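Need DUF5082 domain-containing protein's 3D structure for a figure. Predict it.
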Amino acid sequence: MTLAYYYSLLRKKEEELQRVYRCEAKLLNSQAEFQAYQRFVMEPELSSNTWDGKKAEKFQQIRNEDMLESYQDIIEQQFSVVFDQLSSKANDIKEEIYLIRQMIAQLEAQQAEQ
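Structure prediction for DUF5082 domain-containing protein:
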């Protein structure tokens, strides 16, 4: 393979790494926004003046046990999984970039000898 090929591949991998970093930044913003909206899961607040009885209790139970727990799971677990995957992908790309740079250095050294 030629130097031009490896320089092109290096540029492609560097762009790919930047896309992963941009994705991570956008996801971080989305996570912050998602956390800010968590309070809306419990709105409107129910009182005996607004809604009372067995159906109100069941609704409140669903909000507390299902909706709020699911919302918190997304914030605490699911975002973490995606961040871990992005970090792993970034590390893989960095390793590829390192190997490509090594190959470029070898090819340049070979050309210098000739």
